[in-house]
Amino acid sequence: MKQTVFLLILLLSILVLSAQEKSGWQIDFRTDIYSRHLWRGDKLGDAPAIEPEISLTNEKFSFTIWGASTFDNRYEELDLIVNYQVLPALSITLFDYYNPVQGEKNEFWHYSGDDLRHTIELTGDFEKEGFPLTVLAGVFFYGDKDIEAGKEQFSTYIEPAYYFKLAGKDFSAFAGFTPFSGYYADNFAFINLGFSFSDSFPVGEKLEIPLDITFCTNPHTNEAWFVVGIGIKNR
User: Fold this and answer.
1) pTM over cut 0.90
2) Residue of 4, 6, 17 lying closest to 109 (CA atoms)
3) Which of 42, 171, 205, 223 has the fewest CB atoms within 10 Å, measured from its CB?
4) pLDDT tens digits for 73-120?
């Protein structure tokens, strides 16, 4: 796993060096530590997690390598993410989620068979500058098979969010749901309701410290979490 991450970051670094001569390209990095790895109303792992990422971007395109590893080494994830800005208010993103299974055979470049560890998702994000409402919609189209039926479930997640300021700080309220049976639930269900606070603190001219605090509840599983994350990123 660590060797794969190193090779991918090396590859991205080579791409960055070759792209420096072209105007508009830049490299961004960020590393966060979260009290728990929380994703769409589901707590993945029972220990704090470190989550690094590195991105190559220009005006409309970005390629990102993102990872997560819990401190007890019981959960790992490595994602390849390609984003394209289709319209000023609409972007599409292709996610390749890689989730190795502890104690089992894991091959990163293996994309078929019973030991498949990849799931591919396509998402669309509506976000208009100056407009407080955003909408995320995503569907898994590969690697999300129903075990009994042996067919893709096309699990779908939709999340409207409302951004607002309170006491001069940035907050958001979100209500994620799945419209039908699949990975997230066995029927229509709200699975990710909550509030999030975000802020950042400059450290010199080139770095800043982002802070994220999230309260989330999953009505479908009757669970709730309070998660805090802090990190460092370039400005």
Assistant:
1) no
2) 4
3) 205
4) 899 999 999 999 999 999 999 999 999 988 888 889 889 887 899 999
